[in-house]
Amino acid sequence: MSETASKKTIWKVIGASSMGTLIEWYDFFIFGSLAVVLSTKFFPSDNPTAAFLSTLATFAAGFVVRPFGALFFGRLGDIIGRKYTFMATLILMGGATFLIGCIPSYETIGFLAPLLVLVLRLLQGLALGGEYGGAATYVAEHAPEGQRGYWTSWIQTTATFGLFISLLVILVTKTFLTDEQFDLWGWRIPFILSIFMVYVSYLIRKNMDESPAFKKAKDEGKTSTNPLKESFGNKYNMKFVLLALFGAAMGQGVVWYTGQFYSMSYMKTVMNVESDQVDSLLGVALLLGTPFFVVFGWLSDKVGRKWVMLTGMLVAVFAYRPIYETMYQTTNLANKQEVVENTVRKAEIVKNGTVNDSVYTIQQTFADGTTYSQITKRHLENGKAKVVDGKISEVIKKTTHITNTDRWKLIGLIWIQVIFITMVYGPIAAFLVEMFPVKIRYTSMSLPYHIGNGIFGGLLPAVSTYLVTNAKVNGDPQFYLEGLWYPIGIAAICFIIGAIYISNKDRNVN
């Protein structure tokens, strides 16, 4: 095959693999991007904080089961082939996402709503557990020798583009609907739209050929009859599975989710930045940073995977707290000069002819153009103050609308975090593929990747949010930084293990 023909083939493979992977990540990210809205739809509304934490826990549940998906679909991929296995994961993911958009709210069917969401999230996690290993293996087994980092890095961009497209779809939907329409039924649109994208991807993947490396192994009778036993029952191979997890994947997972998910949750729930503004500035930062996946994938072909990935982890460990401190202070109203007196509006909630609660909306404007609004509900009973959980009033919502100057500053700070992501994530597909032989590659690489991302990475939003909430309750003046100790600690441990035990040379297995 000529060089031109080879490049044409590999681009076709990347296109087909990337399209499906992008859609699967879109499906997965829609839930995380709409977590704040979903917390009001599928969980009891009497405790907004508990509802939000429950939504994050349900989101994390999809990550927790990813290793089981890696085992189940990885085994199938090493026995029946890469192509048909990750076609199945695509259909399962798309169907689960579509059905989440169809579930009635908590007010309609009660506790059945969060139960159904949890089941579908678990199916999503199982499907994603089989998707990445298939796509990465499939592309790597088509790539020319010495160029795996470059070609597999294109697959790495799909996760970020999946998040970017999910944010774009949400923003477009909100643009054409009123706030009331989006809150009532418009939030379902991004979920339902996924079924059409999945169908297109299915048609593309259906015409793909099997991986040449797997086809050759199958023709020669060298495929595994028991990939699980050969992957994890063999002490020598198990050593590399553990090294892949604790020396690379878990650090990559927390760096990835800090930059793309925790930053979003942090701006919305800790900094109180307007949701639409957060989605737009995160989308811009991701778009500007995505080409660097390919840059660092290419660089890893030249200098080795190890130090590209570990450098990203090390820099993140030392940079996270200064970055998030700067982010917080950028929108800290204590640093801004108020120029307009507070505007206060009052509304009363009347039930059965009696004023039950009164709602106050306070708006402030600052010299740099920042505006802030706070909605407070005062508890009443028969027109008199009522104590609920030790308080007669509670803040329902805080929203800060930032200026263009602050917006670009935050985009720059998020972009730096995206660069950390591209350093650790760009080379990792090639790194994992090169650690394991063809006959057990799908199974062996999928498990450490999805434990690193699904367990260590996926739990990050819930764990970090809990740490911030707990620190705030205990009166810590820098409560807003406490959630970072989780990714900092995991990335630091991973760096030490990787630096000591990972070789900078390929394992060169076949």
Automatic annotation (TrEMBL):
PROSITE patterns the record matches: MFS (PS50850), SUGAR_TRANSPORT_2 (PS00217)
Organism superkingdom: Bacteria
Gene3D superfamilies per record: MFS general substrate transporter like domains
Keyword Acetylation: no
Bilayer topology term: Multi-pass membrane protein
Alphabetical keyword list: Cell membrane, Membrane, Transmembrane, Transmembrane helix, Transport
UniProt domain Major facilitator superfamily (MFS) profile: residue ranges: 13-507
Classification via Pfam families: Sugar_tr (PF00083)
Molecular function as annotated in GO: transmembrane transporter activity
Subcellular location: Cell membrane
Name under which the protein is recorded: MFS transporter
Transmembrane intervals: 21-43, 49-73, 85-106, 112-130, 151-173, 185-204, 240-260, 280-300, 307-324, 414-435, 447-469, 484-502
